[in-house]
Design brief:
Blueprint lengths: L1 E19 L5 E20 L5 E6 L10 H13 L5 E6 L10 H16 L6 H11 L3 H6 L3 E5 L3 E4 L6 E6 L6 H10 L14 H7 L1 H10 L6 E2 L6 E4 L4 H6 L8 E8 L14
Parallel strand pairs: 3-4
Antiparallel strand pairs: 1-2, 2-4, 2-5, 2-10, 5-6, 7-9, 7-10, 8-9
Helix pairs in contact: 1-2, 6-7
């Protein structure tokens, strides 16, 4: 039997970069909210194989390096159990876009396998496993919008207004490591305080062509950056602004009309069905 799960994207409503820690990672603080843009993960329990991952969509990533595979392996290692299954991943969330697609996939895999194999791992245990896979994975495991801090391990639930957001995803690859390196070279005091995202300055300097296009579209004062990009988003009630600029958006950019969510669909796996 196959069971399908929705793997939800997120937006960073704001992102503040704090002190660099002894392990070389920056502490951050970020308000993160789910949106109704999903990858699909279908899991088939299969005793005749050890593990298999099939991916549909534009993703330049081997099966062994995919966070779904890493989540499956981590769960096997922690529980000391074989978890034979086929996992089908359909990618709809753009890759390297600041929307958390890979982290969401890892979290959904952990939660789904915990449920399907009746492993009975607690939320705390799954969060600990998730944090080993990536700093955003614990947020997706907790499955509700809120404020993350530290290196992703600290979380405070918070209800945000459920707004309409239009997303623009330029055809670029924005490297988190490269932007952190660029940020470290900056004198932080020179970064404008009004920026909701501390990466704004280094991102738009690196991708000046994107900034030029936003000015041409006359939305440069509306936009926010999600994570380290490449996704740019703005509040857009009934998506009126996106409709007006649709024909002027470069053909190799992607756009999405998304509604904010307080809870990810996989929150139901904690025994509570909420949106």
């Amino acid at each position: 039997m196959k069971t399908k799960f929705l793997s939800c994207a997120k937006l960073n409503l704001d992102l503040k970069i704090l002190e660099k820690q002894s392990n070389g990672l920056h502490a951050i603080s970020s308000s993160m909210q789910f949106i109704d843009l999903y990858d699909e993960i279908t899991i088939e329990l299969e005793n005749n194989i050890t593990y298999e991952l099939q991916v549909q969509g534009n993703i330049d990533c081997s099966s062994s390096s995919n966070l779904v595979t890493k989540a499956h392996k981590a769960l096997q290692d922690v529980t000391n159990q074989n978890l034979p299954c086929k996992i089908y991943l359909k990618k709809n969330i753009p890759v390297q876009s600041g929307l958390g697609g890979g982290s969401s996939n890892a979290a959904t895999t952990l939660l789904a396998l915990n449920s399907l194999f009746k492993l009975k791992l607690s939320r705390k245990e799954l969060v600990q496993i998730g944090h080993m896979l990536g700093s955003d994975v614990p947020f997706f495991i907790r499955s509700q919008s809120g404020i993350i801090s530290g290196t992703g391990e600290l979380f405070t639930p918070k209800e945000f207004p459920l707004k309409d957001f239009s997303l623009l995803v330029p055809n670029i690859k924005s490297s988190t490591k490269e932007l952190f390196d660029e940020f470290d070279k900056e004198n932080k005091s020179s970064l404008p305080e009004e920026n909701a995202n501390d990466f704004n300055k280094v991102f738009f300097r690196k991708f000046s062509n994107v900034k030029s296009k936003l000015i041409e579209l006359n939305i440069q004062n509306l936009i926010r950056l999600s994570g380290t990009g490449s996704t740019i988003f703005f509040e857009d009630k009934n998506f009126n602004t996106l409709s007006k600029i649709a024909e002027k958006i470069p053909p190799n950019w992607r756009s999405f009309k998304c509604k904010a969510l307080q809870y990810s669909p996989i929150y139901e796996l904690w025994g509570v069905a909420k949106r």
